[in-house]
Specification:
The chain has 29 helices and 23 strands. It has about 750 residues and is an alpha/beta fold.
């Protein structure tokens, strides 16, 4: 029987009478250790070698003695090891000691966060009670029970503390992605692969490129691939930080249902107006009518401008954020710009059809980006209209040294063409018959109470990051012109640092944490959350991971996803600058495993080498940047990124000495006819050696026989359990094709060593 299954007290403690413990003066702390704690540890699945007793630790800060040179010793009763790292710490107390005593909790907490331990959990047991805390959430225990009721709590205890309840982050393993027709009949949510980095196609979707500027925008084809991988047609996809709506639109374009919410009414307006179904002929007729009316009434002379400013409404008195070059929205425009924009808006608002009116206002809103005094022309593209608004370039309202006066109707007409093209592109999937599949709302990600519990099939979201972009502050101009209300409560709920409300880092962290809790509540079990990480501070990584694990998410792995070329700064500082972004993937499961933190007192060289060999095996050779990316992920996962920065500022000498380097591909590979030095998944090793061997034979024009293949690679695999010939054959069938007389050659993609698995 599995030791972590349900158990009874007799199996653990024999005929022990718990009522007699309190009256037995000989039942002290050592009795708690031997009679209560050890049986629990053994039945959880820990072997003697995994139970480290009375490990002596030096206090990392405090010393005593006349010269403060004598280190204070810390001695936890039990340190439990999994995968050679400490998973949790347990301290025994005498039965007359209260396990909730703050001094006891503080004492055991100090053991668990010691650099030589760095554990995920810590626990206290006095023979009567057991209490368990997560190191990063000591405000309340994750589990507390009376020992004589342990049967009722055993499943939860095992879920948190059995050796199988821990993982060492993302594993680099062999995966066979060949899909048979039978496999595609049933979509298995619990067994989806982690995606590799996806080449970006930014400007190839008219629905996202050129319609309307926004502060951040996920690459549409990356989002689409994630949606198609982790959900199936008909599923409900959520983005609680919806922004410009890439997640929602790509969900709809791939036959899913979508919920997109955002606190910024500008963002909500953009998405709703973009997907609003319209007849393009009717839209064209409305545009022509408005164009004619506008041109007939366009204010040009000083007298016409003055008259228009009295006749047509425009924003007045809307305060801009501190740091802006002017105080109010209307000061961002010349009188001519105010008059012409107000005139154009007046005629748009006269349109009776709501969807057409909102679509025209989307064009108008896009026009605002160019028609204001903060519009900076691009010096490399001197023609008017080739630059950008200051808020998108500098993240503040900065008046241009030489403001550009663009022709309103010319650029309104350009907006019309862009939006019409986007509508046409979306029409087959987003139309009058499918629009009910979309819910686009102004709301807070911290409160999704209107979404039923466990009703969402997939979440892809890109949250705001720290101080970089105060979205509501920077959207004042658009929200004012679009007559969209922003309340004080919106500012209170906005997850940023700083801003007009001077939010602290703690407030920002709290709002992000609350949003993750809500995502957990609404997501179905066995479903996925993909969380975009683009922060510069590793501390925020740990906030996301620890909050997600506290909720019940299981971390599956992070994937590096670039959005452009690597910067010089990134190349010079590989472990201090994050290029692109990471996409962190979680799954909501009933028995989640926690990530083990690396013991910071250990030598991390083996982890580094195993990570390097793993990514080389995975990609059949890896570039320096790919290796750096994987090491950053591993350093973040296991909590040793600071050590990585200090000890491996330049990986090149290590790589050049330990691996072969191909100047034509910029890739490092395992030295020819050399074994892997660390433990790598056997099927991954088989695949790597098969690719190398068959590629070499292919260049020679030779298709080797199966027996030749076995003789060539089997000696390289003998650093562990020797695989059966059938295992080698199954990998071979995945990457190569059978030719006459039981000979083999690589499939075309593999011959180029570019197979993705």
């Amino acid at each position: 029987m599995d030791k972590t299954n349900l158990i009874n007290k007799k199996q653990l403690f024999g005929d022990l009478d718990f009522n007699s413990i309190s009256n037995n003066p000989d039942f002290k702390e050592d009795s708690v250790r031997e009679i209560i704690i050890l049986p629990i540890l053994y039945h959880l699945g820990y072997l003697q070698e995994n139970i480290v007793r009375s490990k002596t630790l030096q206090h990392p800060f405090l010393k005593v003695g006349s010269n403060n040179k004598i280190a204070i010793k810390l001695v936890p009763d039990y340190c439990l090891k999994v995968e050679n790292n400490f998973a949790w710490v347990l301290d025994a107390k005498a039965p007359n000691q209260r396990i909730t005593d703050l001094d006891h909790i503080a004492q055991v907490y100090s053991y668990s966060c010691h650099p030589e331990i760095h554990s995920t959990y810590f626990a206290i047991c006095n023979g009567f009670e057991f209490i368990l805390f997560r190191v990063q959430a000591t405000n309340e225990p994750v589990l507390q029970f009376c020992i004589d009721e342990i049967e009722q709590y055993w499943e939860r205890l095992a879920m948190y503390l059995s050796p199988d309840s821990f993982q060492i982050g993302k594993n680099i393993t062999y995966e066979n992605n060949s899909v048979t027709s039978k496999q595609t009949d049933k979509f298995d949510y619990s067994n989806r692969p982690l995606l590799e980095e996806i080449p970006v196609k930014k400007q190839q979707a008219k629905r996202h490129f050129g319609v309307h500027g926004y502060f951040t925008k996920q690459t549409w084809n990356v989002v689409a691939d994630y949606i198609k991988t982790y959900s199936k047609p008909g599923d409900l996809v959520l983005d609680p930080f919806g922004g410009s709506g890439v997640t929602a639109i790509e969900a709809l374009m791939n036959n899913r249902k979508a919920i997109s919410i955002d606190l910024n009414p500008m963002a909500v307006f953009i998405v709703k107006a973009l997907i609003a179904p319209v007849k393009l002929d009717d839209l064209r007729d409305s545009f022509v009518r408005i164009k004619d009316e506008y041109l007939a009434n366009e204010p040009k002379t000083a007298e016409e401008i003055a008259r228009a400013l009295k006749k047509y409404p425009y924003p007045k008195g809307f305060a801009l954020p501190k740091g802006s070059d002017v105080d109010t929205v209307e000061q961002l425009f010349s009188d001519k710009q105010l008059a012409q924009l107000a005139c154009l808006k007046y005629f748009i608002k006269k349109e009776e059809n709501e969807n057409i009116r909102e679509t025209l206002m989307l064009m108008f809103s896009g026009l605002l980006t160019k028609t204001n005094l903060t519009y900076h022309n691009n010096p490399n593209r001197p023609a008017a209209g080739q630059g950008n608004s200051a808020v998108f370039a500098y993240y503040r309202y900065r008046v241009a040294p030489e403001p550009v006066d663009v022709e309103v109707m010319k650029y309104f007409e350009l907006r019309y063409r862009k939006v019409a093209e986007a509508k046409l592109e979306m029409a087959s999937h987003i139309n009058k018959g499918t629009i009910d599949n979309a819910t686009i709302l102004k709301a807070s990600a911290t409160n999704l109470k209107w979404i039923p519990k466990e009703s969402i099939d997939y979440i892809y979201t890109d949250p705001p990051y720290g101080k970089k972009i105060p979205y509501l502050d920077l959207s004042v101009m658009w929200n004012a012109w679009l007559d969209l209300e922003v309340t004080q409560d919106d500012y209170n709920q906005e997850a940023i640092e700083g801003g007009e409300n001077h939010k602290s880092k703690e407030e920002y962290n709290s709002l992000i944490s609350q949003s993750i809790k809500e995502m957990y509540r609404v997501l179905k079990f066995d479903r996925w959350l993909s969380f975009v990480f683009a922060h510069k501070d590793p501390e925020f990584w740990h906030l996301i991971i620890e909050t997600a694990e506290n909720c019940g998410f299981e971390y599956i792995g992070a994937v590096a996803q670039k959005n452009g070329q690597t910067s010089f700064k990134k190349r010079q500082n590989p472990f201090t600058v994050l290029s692109g972004q990471l996409i962190i993937n979680f799954r909501k499961v009933r028995k989640p495993r926690a990530i083990l933190k690396a013991n910071l007192g250990m030598d991390i060289a083996e982890i580094v080498m195993q990570t390097i060999e793993g990514i080389i095996a995975k990609n059949s050779g890896a570039t320096l940047e790919q290796i750096n990316d994987e090491l950053i992920i591993k350093g973040l996962e296991l909590g040793f990124l600071d050590l990585l920065k200090k000890e491996y500022t330049d990986l090149t000498p290590l790589l050049m000495s330990a691996f072969d380097y191909d100047e034509t591909t910029d890739k490092f590979t395992i030295k020819t006819d050399t074994k892997f030095q660390t433990h790598i998944d056997v099927r991954l090793r088989i695949r790597y050696y098969l690719l190398s061997y068959l590629t070499r034979k292919g260049r020679e024009g030779n298709n080797p026989h199966f027996d030749e293949i076995i003789l060539a690679i089997l000696p390289l695999l003998k650093n562990g359990i020797t695989p059966e010939h059938q295992t080698i054959l199954s990998v071979l069938e995945d990457i190569a094709q059978h030719v006459a007389d039981d000979c083999w050659k690589l499939k075309k993609a593999d011959g180029q060593l570019k197979l993705k698995i």
